[in-house]
Amino acid sequence: MLDACEVTRQFPPLVGICRQPRKMVKSMLPVLARNQERNKLLFNAILLVTLTSMVFVYPFDNQFRFTLGVAVLSTLLLYFARLSVLTTAVLSGIAIVILRTAANFVLGDDSFEAVVFKNLPSLAYYLSFGICFHVFRVRKCIDNLPVAILLISLADIISNLVEIYFRPLNVAGNEAILASIIAVAVLRAIVAVYWYALLCRYHAFVLEEEQRARYAELTMMIAKLRAEVFYLRKSSQDIEQVMEQSYWLYNHLQNSGAAPADHASSAAKALAIARDIHEIKKVYVRVIAGIEKILKSSTTDNAMKLSEILFIIQQNTQRYLAEMGSPISITFDYSEDFVTDKHYTIVSVLDNLIINAIEACGQTGAIRVAQTSADDHIVFRVEDTGCGIHPQNFALIFNPGFSTKFSPRTGKMSTGLGLAHVKNLTEALGGSISVSSQPGAGAVFVVTVPRSRLVINED
């Protein structure tokens, strides 16, 4: 008996043929998913048209009805370009005939055949309406609303006349019938176009909200990246200093007059360290250049109002609290809606302080973020009602790596970089940060930045 490897070696074409169905299935999966979505939309459209078709009036002695389903059908065909006009119209007509036949047979005294022949002309209406809607290319004219209303009305009128041909009316006054058909057709066309416009406006509103949320997330991400670039630059400078010191040590050992063998070995090690540090520095430089290139290609340093910055932070914080299931409340106040091009720095500073405040509050509490002006400075305050900070830690909390927080689940300490970020970013703008707190009484962080470094308009 041949094993799988032997079959593969002796009959490679057969193995390829056996693998073809798997590839075909994988390639068909996206198509099947799209078809399933389209079929679901078609089913929902037919169901909606069928149900709304039961809302109707009898203007001609209980022989001919005008329904709301036609306006719904027109709206759906205009809004959902994926819907096939003829398929949707015909299947809607069949579903309506079935529903009306069942309702009349259960509630009425006529025979099943009589009920079927009574409702069957409705199918002629929907078939004619689908054909006219398709032939008139109503979707192509939707940008011109009067023309769209005219074409939908014309399709409705023709379809009603076709239905009347198969459903003779035992009433007098053809002019009155024709006038009613025209009036109802125009009315239903206006309603359909109006509903279509409302759907488009709602869709635009949803897209705007989604775009605003994505913009807020992008702004937060860029702010964090810019803070990381700031520290990468700082680390790169530190590496440069260490490399210079290593090279100085190499020269010192080379020029010293002690034992040549020992000094030659030490000098070689110092030179090797300098070379290694130089390679590390080149990696840092490449990383910094790559991140800055991404930031420049994806965003621009356009100025923003403070109200817009605080709105972005508020949306991000509320989303974070909702994901945590935390009842902590947060409020934002500002006294001056100035314009600044340092919005990423402000986002980074306030976001880090707010995250620290949330962690300090624990399961419940309140946070307040406020902006005020003092002389030639802009002041930001972040207050919380959390566990507070012991005064002996005031001088340590801004040091990189210092932290008193740890994860109860993993037992790992926090990195202690958040407040160090805030301090360095604030000082890079020529500002300062201070803290006041007592254990169990919350904490207040105050960030003060010169107005000239933040505000770009003094109108």
Automatic annotation (TrEMBL):
Uppermost EC category: transferase
Membrane spanning residue stretches: 41-58, 88-107, 119-138, 145-165, 177-197
CDD domains: HATPase
Reaction(s) catalysed (UniProt annotation): ATP + protein L-histidine = ADP + protein N-phospho-L-histidine
Record key words, sorted: Kinase, Membrane, Phosphoprotein, Transferase, Transmembrane, Transmembrane helix, Two-component regulatory system
Pfam families: HATPase_c
Domain Histidine kinase, first and last residues per copy: 346-453
GO biological process: phosphorelay signal transduction system
Entry-linked SMART domains: HATPase_c
EC number: 2.7.13.3
Alphabetical list of InterPro entries matching this protein: 2C_sensor_his_kinase, HATPase_C_sf, HATPase_dom, His_kinase_dom, Sig_transdc_His_kin-like_C
UniProt GO MF annotations: protein histidine kinase activity
Cross-referenced PANTHER family: SENSOR PROTEIN CREC
Record-given protein name: histidine kinase
